[in-house]
Amino acid sequence: MGARMLRPTCRAFEQVRRQMKDALEKEKRQPAPFRNGVGAFVYPCQKLVFTYCERGGSSRGMHEYLTQGKLEAWAQQHPQIEIQVEPKPSKHPMVSGQFLGGREKSFCARKLTSEEIKAKVQDLANTSGRPDTRFRQPVLSKNYSVRGIWSPFHSQDLFNVLEASKKAHRSE
Amino acid sequence: MRLLSRPTATRWHTCVKRPSAALPPRVVVNGARAFCTTLAPSTTSTTTAKASPVPTSNNPVARPHSDETKALVHRLRNQAKYYATVKVRGKCYTVTEGDLIVTDRMVDLSLGDVLNLDAVVELGSKDYTIVGKPLVSTDYFTIKAVVTEHPVSSTVVTTKFKKRKDYHKTIEYQPRYTLLRIAKLDVNKLA
């Protein structure tokens, strides 16, 4: 995926982003960080591209998914997502998504049944295009700490380390 | 937690127990909490509001707040930044505005849903803190969260092995998450 050429829509997006960045840099301003959901929520998945082969056996499930109206029904429920279906002869079927910020994410639908494809498409559309990551913190924050770091020299009661250690000794 | 945008909320949204009789807020001047619980005796001013009837969503016939309560909440409101410890499905998360909460997958939510987080254990700023007993009254704050993503984790591999017993096991799994963005965290002005 890394060596693949950017799609035309992505290239246009990159150009606009570059122009905006240059304009802000002229005025020595940083662009505000985009935090989806603060102020407005933008659906992260913008486009899905389905590819299939007409002859290949690995595309059987994909045929079923495309022809039995399953994709059509799903597309009607998600009018915000652009959907493109194209044949790719002699290749395994693929579903690739384009997301906000020019990110791309895809999965291979080789030998998958139509139901499996349906579930995987839903999973793909539910992400923001970031690679699968294991989150180890409960909260992801970029803000500075509200309360700051506690300091013994800047609090209302001065924290006397010597007295505290003496007390601890006495109690022992 | 109460769902705002979709009225057909399922069972778990309302599973948070509200206190039957709302308790008065305890406003603690910053620094007092740390010393009370550790070594030095608390010499800082710890002001406790008198028991005043606090209107809740469960109590439609609510009496107005006392002047003391209003003044104390107003002190907190005048601060620049706030934090809150919210409960989502029984787990506590300390958040500020714009943060992302990583929760276990909530199947009944779709992207863009707006949640009203009303189970708050603690609400505070740099200098003041309101500690709930067990929860802070919903009149004091507005916290809204937006469902932004339902991501899947990378594959986690755990292995089990027992010596001399011919026992090997490899378990692979992918945890599923739901990410909630704190779209708004504000202290209300009490009327």
TrEMBL record, chain A:
Alphabetical keyword list: Mitochondrion, Ribonucleoprotein, Ribosomal protein
Compartments in which it is found: Mitochondrion
Molecular-function annotations in GO: structural constituent of ribosome
Signal peptide location: none
Keyword Mitochondrion applies: yes
Record's GO cellular component terms: mitochondrial large ribosomal subunit
Any one biological process term the GO annotation gives: mitochondrial translation
Domain Ribosomal protein/NADH dehydrogenase: 54-128
SUPFAM superfamilies listed in its UniProt record: Thioredoxin-like
Gene3D superfamilies on file: Glutaredoxin
Keyword Ribonucleoprotein set for record: yes
Similarity comment: family membership: Belongs to the mitochondrion-specific ribosomal protein mL43 family.
Protein name as catalogued: Large ribosomal subunit protein mL43
Gene: MRPL51
UniProtKB/TrEMBL annotation, chain B:
Source organism (scientific name): Dimargaris verticillata
Family statement: Belongs to the bacterial ribosomal protein bL21 family.
Segments of skewed composition (Low complexity): 44-57
Gene Ontology terms for molecular function: RNA binding; structural constituent of ribosome
PANTHER family assigned: 50S RIBOSOMAL PROTEIN L21, LARGE RIBOSOMAL SUBUNIT PROTEIN BL21M
Keyword Ribosomal protein: yes
Source organism superkingdom: Eukaryota
Disordered: region residues: 44-65
Keywords: Ribonucleoprotein, Ribosomal protein
UniProt cross-references to InterPro entries, sorted A to Z: bL21-like (IPR028909), bL21-like_sf (IPR036164), Ribosomal_bL21 (IPR001787)
Any one Gene Ontology BP term: translation
Protein name as catalogued: Large ribosomal subunit protein bL21m
GO cellular component: mitochondrial large ribosomal subunit
